[in-house]
Specification:
With about 900 residues, the protein is α/β, with parallel strands linked by helices. It contains 30 helices and 32 strands. Among the domains are: about 220 residues, P-loop containing nucleotide triphosphate hydrolases (Rossmann fold, 3-Layer(aba) Sandwich); about 140 residues, ABC transporter ATPase  like domain (ABC transporter ATPase like fold), CATH 1.20.1580; about 150 residues, 2-Layer Sandwich (Ribulose 1,5 Bisphosphate Carboxylase/Oxygenase); about 60 residues, no CATH class. Keywords: ATP-binding, Cytoplasm, DNA damage, DNA excision, DNA repair, DNA-binding, Excision nuclease, Metal-binding, Nucleotide-binding, Repeat, Zinc, Zinc-finger. One of its GO terms (biological process) is nucleotide-excision repair.
Length: about 900
C-alpha cells in the first residue's frame, strides 16, 4: 500500500497517539495471559498488549505491518532466550549471540515452539517418514512382525532347530567328503590374535581363513586393514547309511557345538566341491531350499541411513547421481535410479522381509490415506501371538498418520524427500508432529499454515488448530485466511500500512469486534465494506488459439487431455494433492522446455500443441531468488544497478574518482572486507540454528568508511539499502528511473521489504513476487505465457486486490497467465478455471470441471464450485 506524503503523516500522527498511551495493565495474571509492554522490534511502535493463553489467537494485517515482528521476533525470540537461560553454563555462553528483542518486558511467557514455513532439510536422506518418525515405527514393526521370504525361491524362511539342520545335512549326497564350519568372524578387519589363541586353548586344530584351510599352529599373519572371514573346523565327515543312528548323534553334537561357537550360524561344504551344494544353516533365518539366510532381524536392517541396511551400490540414496536426487526416484526409466535397489534405498536382505506380501519400501511409496487403510486392516490379520508386540506400534502409526491426514497431507508418501516439500507442507508436517507429542502448556507460533490448502482442506486444518488449543496450549497464528480469522478466539490486527507505516496495534478482540472496528482494514473486508470485485466482462482471449496437453500421465494424472485458452487468466485449482502441480509445472512447463530443447516428452504426455502461439514462457515459482545475503531484492530486480549508477555521478564520487563498481558489495574495493559485503557474520551454534550477528566493523552497512562518506540527501548507500521500498519511493521521488522501478516492486505488495533485504530471509511468496516485479519492468510482447504458483501466499486481502490489478494488466496486454491457486478472491476474478481432482493422491488426477468461475460454481461434483457458488449468488 503506497501513501502520498501528506496522507502518510496524517496516518502517523493518528496512530502515534495510540502508541504513546500506556496500557493500564496493573498486575497481570500470568496464569491466564501473556502481557507485552513496550515492543519496538523492527517496525513495532512501542506497542503494549495482553494476549489470552490457551486460546487460538490470529495476528493479521497488511503485509509488512509487523505481524511476524510481534509473533516471531518478539514473543518466540524471547521465549527461546528464556529457555537457553535455563540451560547449563556451557549453553548460556551463547546468550550474547541471541539478541534480546526490543521490548520492555514480557510476563506470563510459556515455553515456545516456532513452526515456520522453512524447508525441513536439504539432506537427500531426509524423508517425510524420517521427519515424522513414522518410518522408525515401521522399521520396528517389520523387525518384530515381518516374515522373511527367500529372493531365490519365494519361500517363507523360519528359524531352524539343530534337529532340522541334521536332517538337511543327512540329505546331502553320500559320495562327497564334507566339513562342518562355525563362522566366528564375518567380513571384519583385524588380526584376531585373541580369537585364535582362545581356539587353540579349546583344542581346535584347523580353521578356515577366507578360502584357505590352515592348521591352527601354522597360522599366517593377517593384514590388519583387510576384511576377513574366519571359520572353525568342527567336524570332517562322509555321510554313511541314512539310518546310522550313532553318526546322527555325533553329527547332532557337532551341530550344537558349531551353533554355540558360530552364533547360531553354521556352514556345511564339500571339501572337493564337485557336485554337492554348500549349506548355509542358521538357527535364526535360513531358506531350506536355496540356503539363503539372514541374521536376527532388527530395526537397523530397514534403515537406509545405516550401513547395515542401506543398498551397497547407492549407499541408501536410491539414485546414483546425487545432483539428480530431486527428480522423482519412482521413475524407473530414469538412468540415475540405482540399478541394484531400483530406488528402494535398501539392501536385498531388508526387502526380503514382508508383511501381508509388501516390503517396507513398497509401504513407503503408498499415499498416506492408502497406508492408513492398510494399517487398519493389518490389526486384524496379524497372528494372535504377535499382537502383543504389534498393537502399541500400530496404534502409534495410526495416530501419526491421522494427524497428517487431518492437516490435508493424505496425498504424501513416507518416501517423499523433505527437500521437495513446499513451505506450507513442511509447516503442516511439523504441526502434525506437535499434536502427536501431546505437550500441554506450550506457546505455539505458526506462520500462515493455510498456505497451499484448498478451502475444503483448510477446514480440516482449523479443526487441527482447535485440537492443539484444546490440549491446553496457546496457539498464535500469523494468518490472512478469512475462515481462520473468523474461527479464532482472539484477533490482533496490525497496521495500518507496511514498513515504517506499520507496527501499530490497530485493534484486538473477538472476530466480531474486529469486524466492527472502524479503523481496521481487516474489519472492512470482513464486513464487506471493502471487497475484491468480480469482473463484469470476461476476456474473450485469442479466438481459436490454445495450448493443449494430450494424454498427460505424470504422477497421478489419469491420461488426461487439457486445453488452456490463450489470452486469458486461467486458474488451476483442486484439493491438496489432486494433481495441479503435476499438470502445470511437471507437464506443461517441463514439456515446453523439453520441446525447446528438441527432447522427447516420454513419461509426461503424448504431445503439447499450440506452442507456436507463444514467444516465451516465464515461470514464477516460490524457489529462492538466491542463497546468500548478497542476493537481494535490489540486485535481482536490477534496481541496485540504477542506484549504484546514481551514486557514481554524485559530486563526491567524481571528486574521488569512484565508479559504479565502488558501490558494489560483491567485489573488493568499496565493500567491508571483514564481512565480505554481507553486513553480517554467521556464528555456528552447534546445538541451535546458526545465528547471524551484525558485522562489528561496518555495523551492518556492508561498505568501508570511505565509500560510506559519499552521501545523497544525507544518506549513504548503506542507509539506502536499509530503506523499505515505501521509504525509498519518497527518497528517490525526483529520480524517474529509480522511482519507476520502485513503484513496480511496491505494486506487487512488497512495499514493506528493505531494498537490500537478503534472499535467505524472503519467504517463498515474497520471492515469487520479486520475480513478478522483475518481469513487470520488462516490455510486454503480448504473447508471453506466465506461470504462477500461488502468488497470493502471505498477502492480506488488500494486498491481493493490489496484486490482481497488476496481473489483470498483464492479461489485458494479450498475455496468458496460468495460476495455480486456492484463494477464492482470486479464482472468482479469472476468465477460466480448470478444477483438478476430485480427491488427492490416487483418487485425483482427473479434470472435474472446466469453464468460467460462475459455471464452476454450478458444477455439483466440484469442491471448488461449492465454495465459489456463494460469491455469484451475492452478485
Amino acid at each position: 500500500m503506497f501513501f502520498s506524503f501528506k496522507a502518510e503523516h496524517k496516518i502517523l500522527r493518528k496512530f502515534q497517539k495510540m502508541s504513546d498511551k500506556t496500557m493500564p495493565i496493573g498486575i497481570p495474571d500470568t496464569r491466564t495471559s501473556i502481557t507485552i509492554c513496550g515492543a519496538c522490534q523492527h517496525n513495532l511502535k512501542n506497542i503494549s498488549l495482553t494476549i489470552p493463553k490457551d486460546r487460538l489467537v490470529v495476528i493479521t494485517g497488511p503485509s509488512g505491518s509487523g505481524k511476524s515482528s510481534l509473533a516471531f521476533d518478539t514473543l518466540y525470540a524471547e521465549g527461546q532466550r528464556k529457555y537457553v537461560e535455563s540451560l547449563s553454563v556451557y549453553a548460556r555462553q551463547f546468550l550474547d549471540m541471541m539478541p534480546k528483542p526490543e521490548v520492555d518486558s514480557i510476563s506470563g511467557l510459556c515455553p515456545a515452539i516456532s513452526i515456520e514455513q522453512k524447508s525441513i532439510s536439504h539432506n537427500p536422506r531426509s524423508t517425510v517418514g524420517t521427519v515424522t518418525e513414522i518410518y522408525d515405527y515401521f522399521r520396528l514393526l517389520f523387525a518384530r512382525v515381518g516374515k522373511v521370504y527367500s529372493p531365490e525361491t519365494g519361500l517363507c524362511i523360519e528359524p531352524q532347530s539343530a534337529g532340522q539342520m541334521v536332517q538337511r545335512i543327512m540329505a546331502l549326497p553320500e559320495s562327497e567328503k564334507y566339513v562342518l564350519l562355525a563362522p566366528v568372524v564375518r567380513g571384519e578387519k583385524g588380526e584376531f590374535k585373541s580369537i585364535f589363541s582362545g581356539l587353540k586353548k579349546q583344542g581346535y586344530g584347523k580353521v578356515k581363513i577366507d578360502d584357505t584351510f590352515y592348521d591352527i599352529e601354522e597360522l599366517p599373519k593377517l593384514k590388519k586393514n583387510t576384511m576377513h572371514d574366519v571359520s572353525i573346523v568342527i567336524h570332517r565327515f562322509r555321510i554313511p547309511n541314512k539310518e546310522d543312528l550313532e553318526f546322527k548323534d555325533t553329527l547332532m553334537q557337532s551341530v550344537e557345538q558349531a551353533l554355540r561357537l558360530g552364533d547360531q550360524y553354521i556352514i556345511v561344504e564339500p571339501l572337493e566341491k564337485k557336485t554337492a551344494p554348500t549349506l548355509h544353516l542358521s538357527g535364526k533365518m535360513s531358506c531350506p531350499v536355496s540356503g539363503f539366510s539372514l541374521p536376527e532381524i532388527e530395526p537397523r536392517l530397514f534403515s537406509f541411513n545405516s550401513p547395515y541396511g542401506a543398498c551397497r551400490v547407492c549407499d541408501g540414496l536410491g539414485v546414483l547421481n546425487i545432483f539428480c536426487y530431486e527428480n522423482s526416484i519412482e521413475d524407473q526409466n530414469d538412468p540415475d535410479v540405482c540399478y541394484q535397489c531400483h530406488g528402494d534405498r535398501l539392501g536385498k536382505a531388508a526387502l526380503c522381509v514382508k508383511i501381508q506380501g509388501a516390503h517396507i519400501a513398497q509401504v513407503g511409496k503408498w499415499p498416506l490415506d492408502q497406508l492408513f487403510s492398510w494399517v487398519q486392516h493389518l490389526e486384524f490379520t496379524i497372528e494372535k501371538d504377535k499382537r502383543v508386540i504389534s498393537t502399541p506400534i500400530l496404534r502409534e502409526i495410526k495416530s501419526r498418520l491421522q494427524f497428517l491426514m487431518d492437516v490435508g497431507l493424505s496425498y504424501l508418501t513416507l518416501s517423499r524427500a523433505s527437500s521437495t516439500l513446499s513451505g506450507g507442507e513442511t509447516q503442516r508436517i511439523r504441526l502434525a508432529s506437535q499434536i502427536g507429542s501431546g505437550l500441554t502448556g506450550v506457546l505455539y507460533v505458526l506462520d500462515e499454515p493455510s498456505i497451499g490448502l484448498h478451502q475444503r482442506d483448510n477446514d480440516r486444518l482449523i479443526r487441527t488448530l482447535h485440537r492443539l488449543r484444546d490440549l491446553g496450549n496457546s496457539v498464535i497464528v500469523v494468518e490472512h485466511d478469512e475462515d481462520t480469522i473468523r474461527q479464532s478466539d482472539h484477533v490482533i490486527d496490525m497496521g495500518p500500512g507496511a514498513g515504517y507505516l506499520g507496527g501499530y496495534l490497530i485493534a484486538q478482540g473477538t472476530p466480531s469486534e474486529i469486524e466492527a472496528h472502524p479503523d481496521s482494514l481487516t474489519g472492512a473486508y470482513l464486513r464487506g465494506e471493502k471487497k475484491i470485485p468480480i469482473p463484469e466482462i470476461l476476456r474473450s482471449g485469442h479466438v481459436d488459439k490454445e495450448l493443449k496437453i494430450v494424454d498427460a500421465v505424470v504422477n497421478n494424472l489419469k491420461n488426461i487431455t487439457v486445453s488452456f485458452p490463450l489470452g486469458k487468466m486461467i486458474g488451476v485449482t483442486g484439493v491438496s494433492g489432486s494433481g495441479k502441480s503435476s499438470l502445470v509445472m511437471d507437464t506443461l512447463c517441463k514439456g515446453i522446455r523439453y520441446l525447446n530443447q528438441k527432447r522427447e516428452l516420454k513419461g509426461m504426455c503424448r504431445e503439447i500443441l499450440g506452442t507456436q502461439f507463444i514467444d516465451k514462457m516465464i515461470e514464477m515459482d516460490q524457489s529462492p531468488i538466491g542463497r546468500t545475503p548478497r542476493s537481494n531484492v535490489a540486485t535481482y530486480t536490477g534496481l541496485f544497478t540504477l542506484i549504484r549508477d546514481w551514486f557514481a555521478v554524485l559530486p563526491d564520487s567524481k571528486t574521488r574518482g569512484y565508479t559504479a563498481g565502488r558501490f558494489s558489495f560483491n567485489v573488493p574495493g568499496g565493500r567491508c572486507e571483514h564481512c565480505k559485503g554481507d553486513g553480517v557474520l554467521c556464528i555456528e551454534m552447534h546445538f541451535l540454528p546458526n545465528v547471524y550477528t551484525t558485522c562489528p566493523q561496518c555495523a551492518g552497512q556492508r561498505y568501508n568508511q570511505q565509500t560510506l562518506e559519499v552521501r545523497y540527501k544525507d544518506k549513504n548507500i548503506g542507509d539506502v539499502l536499509k530503506m523499505s521500498v515505501t521509504e525509498a519511493l519518497i527518497f528517490f521521488e525526483e529520480i524517474a528511473s529509480i522511482h519507476k522501478r520502485l513503484l513496480v516492486i511496491d505494486g506487487v505488495g512488497l512495499g514493506y521489504v528493505q531494498i537490500g533485504q537478503g534472499a535467505p530471509t524472503l519467504s517463498g511468496g515474497e520471492a515469487q513476487r520479486v520475480k513478478l516485479a522483475k518481469e513487470l519492468t520488462k516490455r510486454s510482447t503480448g504473447k508471453t505465457l506466465y506461470i504462477l504458483d500461488e502468488p497470493t501466499t502471505g498477502l492480506h486481502f488488500n494486498d491481493v486486490c493490489q496484486l490482481l490489478e497488476l496481473l489483470h494488466r498483464l492479461a489485458d496486454q494479450g498475455n496468458t497467465l496460468i495460476i495455480i491457486e486456492h484463494n477464492l478472491d482470486v479464482l472468482k476474478t479469472l476468465d477460466w478455471i480448470i478444477d483438478v481432482g476430485p480427491e488427492g493422491g490416487k483418487e485425483g488426477g482427473q479434470i472435474v470441471a472446466e469453464g468460467p468461475p460462475e459455471a464452476i460454481g454450478q458444477c455439483p461434483n466440484s469442491y471448488t464450485g461449492a465454495y465459489l457458488a456463494p460469491y455469484f449468488k451475492k452478485n
